[in-house]
Input
Amino acid sequence: MEAKRKIAIIGASLFQEALILKASEMGIETHVFAWKTGDIGESLADYFYPISTREKDKILARCREIGIDGIISIGSDLAMDAVNYIADKMGLVGNSLEATRISMNKHWMREAFAANGDPSPKSILVDMDTDVSELPPLEYPIIVKPTDRSGSRGVNKLESPEGLARAIAAAVQESFEKKALVEEFATGDEYSVEYISYHGRHYMLTVTQKFTTGAPHFIETGHIQPAPISDELKEKIRKVADHALDTLKLENGAAHVELKVDAKGNIKLIEIGGRMGGDFIGSDLVQLSTGYDFVGAVVSIAMGDAIEEPPVVRDVRKVGVGFITQKADLEQYSKIKRKHPDSIIKDKVDRRIILKDDPTNIYERCGYYIYEVRE
Output
């Protein structure tokens, strides 16, 4: 009997469930690495290794022992550091270490965008030693954020200089490298663009409309695909996003481009992750809304297999995901379930968790629901 091919998956959270299941469906043996916390991937995987996703060299050593044929993750910037590091060391398909460095650090990303003419908010790098009185004049409102974190950790919007020092301290505290950005606040509607790239060729799969709690922390409360935008705007977004992916040297696998479009149609890039969007965007919504097996395609790329070019995508149906953090979120979920119970595709709500009036990051959610959007 021919030996099964093997794939390493970095992370064991709910985001990785679709990836583990898809790889297994494709006849690939799954080897999952994560800190042991009881996450779903620990039991779903063929083999689980209780190693932190930040311990790249330990994971590399085990991957060499196992003889993996590919390595991948979904929805985590931090995991992509290990993915691309190990892929580079083992000669597997991934993105370069330079692409990883630029795409995982918001300061280096802003520098790359500025150097290559990509539309992006102006920003200033700060740390705990920064004297706010010596910063150049700032046009408020502004956003303060860590250079290297996700999930809205340490993010604050300020309407005036009051509280700037505290906001910087909070962002720096959340940062791994203890640095933060003070940057202009981009106005407009927020979208993400879901991409798959293969040997440097970029294919836009769909555009996602994003909803947040707004200031000061901008916790994402839900997403809808496809976004209700014109074909003209969609093409304009595609051109900007394609160019930005080249700027960041992202060549293989999924990418998640976050941007804003103002009332005049001007686009500002917020950030780009060299991986699928989290929050079930990549793992669930893309296939539900387009019919395209996004998860299967990124597994194929990681394993060194060819994919169909260009990908065949269709407008199958409009779908969304909602997250329950505040009382209003729970009321909206209950309303949809009452009026259109058959529209709920997947849901999970832990009513033991206390609803937050002012959530500060995505980890304070107590549930989610994926549903077909009914007009």
In short: Residues 5 and 28 are 5 Å apart (CA to CA). The domain at 6-92 is CATH 3.40.50.20 (Rossmann fold). The chain has eleven helices and 16 strands.
